[in-house]
Design a protein that fits this description.
The chain has 132 residues and is α+β, with helices and mostly antiparallel strands. It is 22% helix and 40% strand. A hairpin with a 4-residue loop joins strand 2 and strand 3.
Length: 132
C-alpha cells in the first residue's frame, strides 16, 4: 500500500528565511508554490527519493497558521506515497483508522492527498499522497 516516504512537512514562520537556511545547509530547492486551498506557500527540497517540504501559512486561521500558534515551528507531518489513494483510504477506513480526509484533495504539485488523524498513528499526523 505505501511505497515510500514522499516528504516530511515542516511548518515555518518565514518561508524565504527558511529557504535561505536550508540552502546554506546544502539543500537545493526545486521550487515554491502557493496552495490556496491549504492556505500555504511551500518550498520543496529533494533529498534522495524523498523531499523536505517547508510550509508557510498564508492565513493565521489555516492549518499551518493554527499549528504554529499552538506548537511553534517544526515537523508538521510525514507523507507516505501510495499508488492508489482511493484504495488506500478505503482500506484504512475498513481497518478502523480515523481519517481527517475521507476523500482526496489537491495538494502541492498537483498531488492527490489525504490526512490520517494522529489518533490512528500514535501521535503522528500522516499524509497519504498519490503523484499527479
Amino acid at each position: 500500500m505505501f511505497t515510500q516516504i514522499d516528504h516530511i512537512g515542516i511548518a515555518v514562520e518565514d518561508l524565504e528565511a527558511s529557504i535561505a537556511s536550508y540552502t546554506a545547509l546544502g539543500f537545493c530547492p526545486s521550487g515554491t508554490e502557493e496552495v490556496a486551498e491549504q492556505k500555504v506557500r511551500v518550498a520543496l527540497f529533494p533529498c534522495g527519493e524523498s523531499r523536505v517540504e517547508l510550509l508557510e501559512s498564508t492565513d493565521p486561521e489555516g492549518p499551518i497558521g493554527k499549528f504554529i500558534a499552538k506548537r511553534g515551528p517544526g515537523i508538521h507531518h510525514v507523507a507516505f506515497r501510495v499508488e492508489d489513494i482511493d484504495a488506500t483510504l478505503a482500506a484504512l477506513k475498513t481497518s478502523g483508522a480515523r481519517l481527517i480526509d475521507e476523500e482526496p484533495r489537491l495538494g502541492a504539485g498537483g498531488m492527490r492527498i489525504a490526512f490520517v488523524h494522529p489518533a490512528a498513528t500514535g501521535g503522528l499526523l500522516m499524509e497519504v499522497c498519490e503523484p499527479a
